[in-house]
Write a structure and sequence with these properties.
single chain; paralog of FGE (formylglycine-generating enzyme); Immunoglobulin-like; 3 domains; six-stranded mixed beta sheet; six-stranded antiparallel beta sheet; 32 strands; 15% helix; elongated; binds calcium ion
Length: 570
């Protein structure tokens, strides 16, 4: 029989707990499924990590039980419905381009070292916020205090001394015997994180861009866990102890008061407690963060902080707990929800792989030139076709010239004149790969004189970096940077002629010089002078015979920049 408690103090006294032990046991309350964690010892912290993970110490843990999942909304709902506990009605839950920060004129509110930004606290609650979407997701927008109140209620209802885990217990259980940097391995194994955890993955990057115009700096974890936001609990592989979602999904409140290091930390499973504790520890990262290492300590949010990224799971002393019928029923319903979710996810198309091996060939017919592209067949089931992009000069934006091309070859039958660049993108109906490497027609080009030769349209270079200048005119701002290197140009002069040559170069004020070579012979060395910035340097006269000439720019300096060379007949 369910015992209805109308009001309850959030911090229950031991006396009340003792009274409830026999009187209030009930079979109706959902008690979270628990997993037995064996006793043992482990090295907590990371000697090569940040200060707050040091010093590493050996910690002894007695056998205990830990929640198999993060506590869900469905479970938490029982507590709120039964007790009318005054749940927080504001929460940091609304994301935008700056994620959970918003502009603020009060510098006192600055967050995360960002001037003029504060946490976006808006009205929102555990049962009504902008992220939660399913009762089998972990409950969030609760804060540490309401988590404790739920636990006190559950204790009273069940007679079992449920509690929050200590930080030491949590790290021990999360590691489940592993000693690697991450519970699943090392940084090099990061593509595996998506099997076990909901983190800021490639899918999250895509969803964040769509929903919030936000992202993860284009560098999410290199895999797809198919959750853009929070997920229902237990969807990923459990760890060796049978725990789900310790890494990722939502961060988890610990019992411990946050202290900046482990100097005086206990060597057993006891939580750190301080008088007037203001900050509690959070562990395990979330869907919104890049993967946390096994020793990474998070959050230390104010104890009264209420946010959408923080949840919790329960601990219980002992090594065995008989699941109640409502617990079994809850898990059955959860499994149904997981199955449904899994079916949805199976339909999600994966990210196509980036195309490799792109090659360009020119085929000249008397009337016109064709450009043919070829690339590798990666046997990628997520790739349905390829979009083809072309830019008509080095710094023209690229335009899509063909969509969803099947196969591994494409011929551009209408190439424009000039230095074309091609790149391709593997696509399916939902998403696309990053752009492939670029191929260009710019090289192996012969320039007709008189005329302007763009430095970036070289025939050969030992190490030219192509870039665009913001201070040169638009449309003529492509240049190359040479560092102790060379770029060569094939030119054709229509007569034997003397030319005035103008070099458009950048003067960085450090007397950078460059050499102008003709057919393997040094013609002259030039050094820009005067004000810092782009300038035109003139070589008054150089003789070029009819036909092909090989010209070259060489420099011994670093980051020497040249935009173009202009040849005018004298
Ligand atoms: Ca994710
Ligand atoms: Ca978690
Ligand atoms: Ca140029």
């Amino acid at each position: 029989m369910k015992v209805i408690i109308k009001t309850i103090t959030p911090f229950i006294t031991p006396l009340l707990f003792t009274m409830s032990f026999t009187a209030m046991a009930t079979n109706n309350v959902i008690e979270p499924p628990m997993v037995a964690i064996p006793s043992g010892s482990f090295l907590m912290g990371n000697e090569s990590g940040p200060l707050n993970e040091k010093p590493v110490r050996q910690v002894q843990i007695n056998a205990f039980m830990l929640g198999k999942y993060e506590v869900t909304i469905a479970e938490f709902k029982q507590f709120v419905d039964t007790t009318n506990y005054p749940m927080p009605q504001t929460c940091v839950h609304e994301a935008g381009p700056n994620w959970f920060l918003r502009p603020s004129s009060d510098s006192k509110n600055n967050q995360q070292g960002r001037a003029g930004m504060e946490l976006a606290v808006t009205s929102g609650s555990w049962d009504n916020n902008s992220i939660s979407n399913n009762e089998f997701e972990p409950v969030v927008c609760i804060g540490w205090n309401a988590a404790k109140a739920y636990i006190a209620w559950l204790k009273q209802e069940t007679g079992k001394p449920y509690r929050l885990p200590s930080e030491a217990e949590w790290e021990y259980a999360h590691r489940a015997g592993s000693t690697s940097t991450y519970a699943f391995g090392e940084r090099a194994d990061m593509d595996k994180v998506c099997h076990s955890s909901n983190v800021a993955d490639k899918y999250a990057e895509e969803v964040a861009a769509k929903l919030f115009k936000a992202g993860y700096g284009g560098r999410p974890e290199p895999c797809n866990d198919k959750s853009g936001l929070v997920s229902i609990v237990g969807l990923y592989q459990p760890n060796a102890f049978g725990l789900y979602d310790t890494l990722g999904n939502v961060e988890e409140w610990m019992q411990d008061c946050y202290v900046d290091d482990y100097v005086n930390a206990p060597v057993n499973a006891q939580p750190v407690e301080l008088a007037n504790c203001k900050q509690r520890v959070l562990r395990g990262g979330s869907w919104h963060y890049l993967t946390y290492s096994a020793s990474q300590r998070a959050g230390r949010e104010q104890q009264d902080f209420v946010g959408v990224l923080e949840g919790f799971r329960l601990a219980l002393d002992g090594d065995k707990v008989e699941p109640t019928s409502s617990t079994l029923d809850f898990e059955k319903q959860l499994h149904n929800a997981q199955k449904k979710q899994q079916q949805k996810r199976n339909k999600l198309l994966d990210f196509p792989q980036k195309a490799t091996g792109l090659k360009l060939t020119k085929s000249n017919t008397p009337s016109r030139q064709y450009i043919t592209l070829n690339w590798d067949n990666l046997n990628d089931i997520a790739t349905f076709g390829y979009d083809i992009y072309r830019s008509n000069s080095y710094f023209d934006n690229s335009h899509k010239i063909a969509s969803n091309v099947k196969g591994f070859e494409f011929t551009d039958v209408k190439p424009t004149n000039g230095h074309l660049r091609y790149s391709i993108v593997a696509v399916n109906a939902e998403r696309q790969s990053p752009f492939s490497d670029i191929v260009t027609t710019g090289r192996h080009e012969t320039h007709s004189l008189p005329g302007k030769v763009q430095a970036e349209a070289f025939h050969y270079s030992s190490n030219a970096v192509i870039a665009a200048s913001i201070s040169e005119p638009k449309g003529d701002n492509g240049y190359i940077r040479l560092s102790g290197s060379e770029s060569q140009y094939k030119v054709t002069s229509n007569t034997d002629a003397a030319y005035k040559v103008t070099f458009r170069v950048f003067n960085n004020g450090q007397n950078q010089s460059f050499e102008f070579w003709q057919e393997g012979k040094l013609v002259t060395t030039l050094t820009p002078t005067g004000n810092r910035g782009w300038q035109s340097l003139i070589l008054p006269e150089v003789y070029l015979p009819t036909g092909k000439n090989l010209l070259s720019i060489k420099t011994k300096d670093n980051n020497f920049s040249i935009n173009w060379l202009q040849f005018e007949k004298i």
